[in-house]
Design goal:
Shape: globular
Number of domains: 2
CATH topology of the largest domain: Fructose-1,6-Bisphosphatase, Chain A, domain 1
Strand content: 25-35%
CATH class of the largest domain: Alpha Beta
Bound molecules: D-MYO-inositol-1-phosphate, calcium ion
Strand order of the largest sheet: 3-4-5-6-7-8-9
CATH superfamily of the largest domain: Fructose-1,6-Bisphosphatase, subunit A, domain 1
Order of helices and strands: HEEHEEHEEEEEEHEHEHEEH
Helix content: 25-40%
Oligomer: single chain
Largest sheet: 7 strands, mixed
Radius of gyration: 18 Å
Number of strands: 14
Length: 263
C-alpha cells in the first residue's frame, strides 16, 4: 500500500471510530486546566499508529497522545487522532482526524477527514489540494473588512499573557466576522476551500497544522508566522490566508495595543 492510499484509508477508519463513539466518551482526563484527552482520542491514535507501524515499520511517527516512534527515519507521520477534543467531549460535532507525512523534512502529504460531514481533504506537495476528489482553491476576498476569519486559543490562556485575546479583539474590529470552531486542522482546510478567508493562531503543535498547512499551500494560499517570515509546522505562530488579505493580517497581529471602539 502506498503512503497516500494508507493515509486516506486509516483517516477514514479513525473518523468512523470517532463518529460511532460521539456521545459515548467513557473517560476524560485533564492534561491541563482546560486541556482534555478522552479514551476515544487514545483509541483513535492506537488504531492509526498500529496500522502505520505494521505497514511502514521503519518510518517515524509523531502523535499528540505520545505513541511516538522516532528513530531518525527521513519519513515521518505527524498525527492528530482527534483534532477538536473539547468539541468532541461535549458532543459538538466539529472535529476531524489529521495526518501529515513528511520526507527529508518536507511535507509531502496532508489528509484531513471530517466524519460528520464526510469531507476528505487531501493535499500533495506540488499536486494540488482536493475536497472529496474535487480541486479546491482559496477565496478571492480582496480585503480584511470583507473577510471571515477563524482562530483558536491556547490551552494556557488563563496563565499566559500570550493568549490571543488581544489579537482576537483587534481582528474583531477589522474583519467581517470571526469564528472559533475548535479544530485548527479543519480551520486550515476551510481556508483552503474558501469558506474562511484567513486563520491565525499561536502555540499550535505540528500535529495540529501539518496536514492543514499543506492543504492551504496547495490551494494557492499563503502561510507565514506573525513576522511574515516562512511558516514552519514546528514554529510558534501561523497566519494562513488567501494571500490577498495576508499583509493586513500581519499588520493586525503586530498592533501594540488593543483597539477600542470609536465613538
Ligand atoms: C486543539 C484544536 C483547537 C486549537 C487548540 C488545539 P485538540 O487541538 O485544534 O482548535 O485552538 O489550540 O490544541 O487538543 O483538540 O487536538
Ligand atoms: Ca489538535
Ligand atoms: Ca488532538
Amino acid at each position: 500500500m502506498e503512503v497516500k492510499e494508507a493515509a486516506i484509508y486509516i483517516a477514514r477508519k479513525a473518523g468512523e471510530l470517532l463518529r460511532e463513539n460521539l456521545g459515548r466518551v467513557e473517560s476524560i482526563e485533564y492534561k491541563g486546566a482546560v486541556d482534555l484527552v478522552t479514551d476515544v482520542d487514545r483509541k483513535s491514535e492506537t488504531l492509526i499508529v498500529d496500522f502505520i507501524k505494521e505497514r511502514f515499520a521503519d518510518h517515524d511517527i509523531l502523535t499528540e497522545e505520545g505513541q511516538d516512534k522516532t528513530e531518525g527515519s527521513p519519513c515521518r507521520w505527524i498525527i492528530d487522532p482527534l483534532d477538536g477534543t473539547t468539541n468532541y467531549a461535549h458532543g459538538y460535532p466539529v472535529f476531524c482526524v489529521s495526518i501529515g507525512f513528511e520526507e527529508e523534512g518536507e511535507l509531502r502529504l496532508g489528509v484531513v477527514y471530517d466524519p460528520m460531514l464526510e469531507e476528505l481533504f487531501v493535499a500533495e506537495n506540488g499536486g494540488g489540494a482536493y475536497l472529496n476528489g474535487r480541486r479546491i482553491r482559496v477565496s478571492a476576498t480582496p480585503t480584511l473588512d470583507k473577510s471571515l476569519l477563524s482562530t483558536g486559543f491556547p490551552y494556557d490562556l488563563r496563565t499566559s499573557r500570550e493568549n490571543n485575546l488581544n489579537h482576537f479583539s483587534n481582528f474583531a474590529m477589522r474583519a467581517q466576522a470571526i469564528r472559533r470552531a475548535g479544530s485548527a486542522a479543519l480551520d486550515m482546510c476551510y481556508v483552503g476551500c474558501g469558506r474562511f478567508d484567513g486563520f491565525w493562531e499561536l502555540k499550535l503543535k505540528p500535529w495540529d497544522v501539518a496536514a492543514g498547512s499543506l492543504v492551504v499551500k496547495e490551494a494557492g494560499g499563503r502561510l507565514t508566522d506573525f513576522n511574515d517570515s516562512p511558516f514552519s509546522i514546528y514554529g510558534y505562530e501561523v497566519i494562513a490566508s488567501n494571500g490577498l488579505i495576508h499583509q493586513e493580517m500581519v499588520e493586525v497581529v503586530n498592533l501594540k495595543t488593543v483597539v477600542t471602539p470609536q465613538g
